[in-house]
Amino acid sequence: MKLKVLQRDGSEAGRTVTLDKSVFAIEPNDHTIWLDVKRVQANARQGTHKSKERSEIAGSTKKLYRQKGTGNARAGSIKSPLRRGGGTVFGPRPRNYGIKVNRKAQALARRSVLSHKAKGDAIRVIEDFTFDSPDTNEMQRMVSALELGNATVLLLTSGHDINAYRSSRNIPRFKVLEATQASTLDLMNAKTLLIQEGAVKTLSAQLGAKKSGKK
């Protein structure tokens, strides 16, 4: 598949880029996409929730009243879960929610999403560009020139570009990530992928047939 390379002003650059078939034209594996999205979301959970159990509640452990003869039910510590202010029974404890998905499956998930986007005509290739300094207005003008509308857009850069990242922070539904750092969830959340020309080569080198061991 070949796509025309666009300039920042929305016009064509007069050249095309060929998308690697082993990255942008495979048979998508939806189950692997689901697994990797689940991994990303699970690993993002802090797992720091905690409720106090009866051993952690402040209060006396003295028996409230004698065992027999009062007509009341037996009662021990004031920290009993049955009493107001008592400890919680089987409450949440800190835990790690992270799950593991092997690297080949993660790569397959990303290739599957990129193939879905390519098949759905949701990929645009833009020439490599840099900002001398953060400039939100210039980034907004580029978005308007490319006629991306109100769609959620993910710009994949060929390298670490702090100025492009800072220029996009105040633009709604627009996100900038280095191509090698974009997760399956990031790719899924974007309705349109705006990929720098150099980032196409980066993705091919990272996820292509030679990298994945395919023949």
What does this structure look like?
This protein has 215 residues and is an alpha/beta fold. The chain has eight helices and six strands; from the N terminus they run ββαααβαβαβαβαα. Strands 2-1-3-6-4-5 form a six-stranded mixed beta sheet. The protein is elongated and about 95 Å long. It starts with a strand and ends with a helix.
Summary tags:
single chain, six-stranded mixed β-sheet, 215 residues, alpha/beta
Sheet/helix structural class: alpha/beta
Alpha carbon gap, first and last residue: 19 Å
Q: Output the strand order for the largest sheet.
A: 2-1-3-6-4-5
Q: How would you sum up the major sheet?
A: 6 strands, mixed
Share of residues in helices: 25-40%
> Beta-strand percentage?
5-15%
Q: Averaging pLDDT over every residue, what do you get?
A: 92
- What is the H/E order? EEHHHEHEHEHEHH
Number of strands: 6
Count, helices:
8
Segments where pLDDT lies below 50 for 5+ residues? Answer: none
Q: From the alpha-carbon coordinates, what is the Rg to the nearest angstrom?
A: 27 Å
**What characteristic shape results from the CA principal axes?**
elongated
Give the topology.
Elements: E1 2-6, E2 12-18, H1 21-24, H2 30-43, H3 103-119, E3 123-126, H4 136-145, E4 153-157, H5 162-168, E5 174-178, H6 184-189, E6 192-196, H7 197-207, H8 209-212
Parallel strand pairs: 1-3, 3-6, 4-5, 4-6
Antiparallel strand pairs: 1-2
Briefly summarize what is shown.
The chain has 215 residues and is α/β, with parallel strands linked by helices.
